[in-house]
TrEMBL record:
This is Uncharacterized protein. GO terms for biological process: adenylate cyclase-activating G protein-coupled receptor signaling pathway; cAMP biosynthetic process. GO terms for molecular function: adenylate cyclase activity; nucleotide binding. Keywords: Lyase, Membrane, Nucleotide-binding, Transmembrane, Transmembrane helix. The chain crosses the membrane at residues 37-60, 66-89, 101-119, 149-170, 177-197, 209-228. GO terms for cellular component: plasma membrane. The keyword DNA-binding does not apply. The keyword GTP-binding does not apply.
Amino acid sequence: MVLWSAWSHSVLKLVVVWRKDYLSRSVPLRYQGDIDVGYSTSLACSLILLLLIGGLQAAILPRTIILLLLFLTAFIWISVVLMLLLAVRLQWIIWDISQSFVLRLAITIFTIILIYTVAQVNVFTCRYETECPPVNATAGWADHRLCPLPHYVAISCCLGYLSVAIFLRLPTLIKCSLLLLMAVIYIMLIQISHVHIFDCYDKRVSAVVPTHVLSVVYIVMFLLAVAIHGRQVEWTARLDFLWKIQANEEKKDMDALQHSNKRILCNLLPAHIASHFLDNQFRSNMISSKFISCLIHYS
């Protein structure tokens, strides 16, 4: 309860920070040096997410050569990192890239950027017509760079957000920075450069609420959800780490107390009697009434 109260005062409204007394004890450095046991799983999930984003882009949005190149680059990159981590698990290599916080952070950010570019690149290549054809005429479009369903742009943005959410140990500030950058780029595309595509879609379906407005709302709502999720995950991870530190410190104190009691007992009793009572089968009964009565009888 004391630890929970102390930790609750070290949390701001938006950003999780360490208290000053934790900073003096180098707790943040110890937290960063802690091994991320779920890092391999996060990379595997990012690979699955990359496949889903690539499938979405190829099925709905324009299919370009640059999409294929970026997809292959991201796929090879994540696969190589996963193979290195698997080689460490199989003890084929000694160097574990997941143990270094800086290297792990750099790999994570680069992986997120690659997945984001796969989700983003085809949006830049969308071409719009000077005239908006009716719905029954869209089936005859032969240009693969046309975007008849622009609301999938917002869906690709939300899928790009997931690449940030799956890395649970990524600091909240970096998560929010990446999410904000993604959202700003997508909103600028929707509201400035690609607004005509959304207007054409609204005319074809006679939309009551403009699609570009709904897309911005979806992007902002999903951004807030992922940011809140990241803050909660980091808050829980830091609290678990503090509990682990407290448990280790209490264990050290118990070992020191046990060693002190052992020295006192060896000073009071002969060596063979002290070793008899300190045997493993009698350790659980050292504070029992039978043991106390034996000491009183000997004295």
